[in-house]
Amino acid sequence: MQFTKMEGAGNDYVYIDARSQQADWPELSRRMSDRHFGVGSDGLILIADSDVADLRMVMFNADGSQGEMCGNGIRCFAKYAIERDIAAPSDDGLTVETLAGIRTVVPTYDGPRITGARVAMGAPILAPAEVPMDGFDLPLSFVSMGNPHAVTFIEQAVAGFPLHTVGPKVEHHPMFPRRVNFEIVNVDAPGKLTARVWERGSGETLACGTGACAIAVAARLSGHCGDEVDITLPGGTLRIQWDGMGEVMMEGPATEVFTGEWAA
Q1: Which residues are catalytic?
Q2: Whose CA, among 85, 129, 150, 217, lies 20 to 30 Å from 173?
Q3: What is the DSSP string of 52-115?
Q4: CA distances from 145 to 6, 257, 258 (A)
């Protein structure tokens, strides 16, 4: 089985053209994502046919659970499909069916090579709450980008926050029946934020595109930024735009790391 590993701001996935092959994809995601005994990734993304868009993206987390949407993953998805002539974007971009809805991806080029993309990520859905968590009183902003996020702004430097301890407890809190992605954020300056992400089903990742969008929405509503914000994550910086209405726009890189053949 041929595969390609790709990453967007360090958020890495294994990509497989699944249009003409079948497998136990959740189990394959668990095995291939293993960073010691597999390829090593945050999950598995499949290229599939769609009746309503140019293509369909099917995403599995590292634990084999299926995700609704992946912002960094969809940029690499578009690069994979376009550069392999699986699909050609229109002037408006490549349309991709996901469990969160249809998303439009406009690639950015350096000569003939796709280096990133701008993605219309859909409109956010909002809800507030506070969750006490083992000595941390975390005021959370709830934002859905087709998948659930809980965002908190903290004074402590995100680099020193015990995310590996608190993250799983937020993810599995009983108020989230389908679990949740958790973002901690520092406000560095107007329009500049630093964040870390605990992803549902994968643990801490170097970046999360839908998480960055959720952070930007929460930051704008909290007065921490205007319509545009740069969010620096451990794997790189994503630029997010949201004017308070309608769709959130995300820009970031898309990089192919290597290709291979999975024989196990």
Answers
A1: 70, 208
A2: 217
A3: SSSEEEEEEETTS-EES--HHHHHHHHHHHHHTTS---BTTBEEEEETTEEEEEEEEEETTEEE
A4: 22, 27, 29
Q: What are phi and psi of 209, to 5 degrees?
A: -70, -50
142 contacts 175 by C-beta, under 8 angstroms: no
Using DSSP's 3-state secondary structure scheme, residue 159 falls into helix
pLDDT tens-digit map of 224-244: 999 999 999 999 999 999 999
For 110-124, the pLDDT digits (tens) are: 999 999 999 999 999
- How many CB atoms sit inside 10 A of residue 202's CB? 22
91-110 per-position pLDDT tens digit: 999 999 999 999 999 999 99
Look at residues 18, 8, 19, 90 and name the one whose alpha carbon lies nearest to residue 54: 90
**34-76 pLDDT, tens per residue?**
999 999 999 999 999 999 999 999 999 999 999 999 999 999 9
- The structure tokens listed for 262 are 């999975």
Task: Name beta bridge partners: 252.
Answer: 117
Give the pLDDT of residue 137. Answer: 79
Burial 53-76 (b: 16+ CB within 10 A, else e): bbbbbbbbbbebbebbbbbbbbbb
Q: Which residue has the tokens 């280096």?
A: 115
User: Is the sign of the CA dihedral 168, 174, 179, 185 positive or negative?
Assistant: negative
Cβ within 8 Å of residue 115, ≥6 positions away: 108, 109, 253, 254, 255
Cα–Cα distances in angstroms (integers) from residue 58 to residues 64, 150, 209, 225, 252, in the given order: 12, 23, 16, 33, 20
Contacts (Cβ under 8 Å, ≥6 apart) of 35 = 41
More confident position, 218 or 130: 218
